[in-house]
Amino acid sequence: MADVRATVWGDGAVSAVFVHGIFSWGSDELYGFGNQRPLAEEFRLVMMDRRGHGASPDIEGGDYEVDADDIIALLGDGAHLVAHSYGGAGAMLAAARRPDLVWSLTLIQPGTLRPAAGHPVVDQALERARAGTAGLPAEMTPEEYLRASTEGIGMPVPPATPERLRAVRTAMRERPCWDADIPLDPLAEAPWPKLMISGTWEDAPELYRRYAGEPLIAAAEFIADRIGARYLRVPGYYPQVQQPGLVNDALRALWREARPEQK
C-alpha cells in the first residue's frame, strides 16, 4: 500500500501530527487544520491527508484502522498528536497501540460514541445510527451530500472542486467511526498529558445540536474523564475552524508543557 501523504509546515525541533475529519484534508482552512498554521512559528506541523483525501492515495472508503497504522508511521520517533472528528478514532487507536511515540494527545470532538455507551444521550444516538436513521440518504450525489453536510449545519458550502468531491466520496463510504471499539485503558495509563476540546453548540441549528452536538458533548465528557484529559469547551461547534485562536493557544500551552525530554 502506498504511503500516506502529509503537508509539513515549520522546522521546529518538536513535531505535531494532525489528523483531520471528513470531506477535508490536513491543510484545508475550511474544515481541516489550515487555521493552525501559526503554530508552525514554533513547532513542526505534520498535516496528514487521510487516504482518499488530499494528496494521499485512494481507498475504497475511510477506515480508522488504516488511519491508525498511517498515524503511527507519521509519528516517527515521537510527536504530539491532534485529531478531529473521524480522525479521532484512528488517533486514539494509534496512541493506545504506541504510547511510546506520543508526547501529548488532543482530541477535538472525536466522533467515537461507542466508548461512552451507557450514557442515555449516547445510547439514543447509537440506536439511531445503527438503525440507519442518523445519516444522509444513500442515493445522494457527492455534490448533494456536501451541501447537506455543510449548509444544513450552518457552515459555509465549499466549492465543489475535484479535491473536495473526492474527499466527500470517501466520507460517503467510510467505516462508521461512531461504532469504533476504542480501548481507553492504555490512554488512561499513558503518562503524557491529554486535552479534549469541544464546542458549546448553543448557536447550532436545533436538530443538528440535538442529534449530533449533544451526543458528541456527552461522549467527549465521558472520554475526557475516563482517560484523565483536561476538558476545554469553546463557543461554536467546529472548534479549530470557528475558534482558531482559542484552540491554538491551548495547543501551544500543552506542547510547551509536554516537552519530549520529560518523557
Automatic annotation (TrEMBL):
| Keywords of this entry | Hydrolase
Q: Which Pfam families match?
A: Abhydrolase_6 (PF12697)
Q: Which GO terms describe its molecular function?
A: hydrolase activity
Query: Can you give the residue ranges of the AB hydrolase-1 domain?
Result: 17-218
Among SUPFAM superfamilies, the record links this protein to: alpha/beta-Hydrolases
Tell me which InterPro entries the record gives: AB_hydrolase_1, AB_hydrolase_fold, Serine_prot/Carboxylest_S33
Tell me its family. Answer: Belongs to the peptidase S33 family.
Protein name per its UniProtKB record: AB hydrolase-1 domain-containing protein
Q: Which organism is it from?
A: Actinomadura macrotermitis
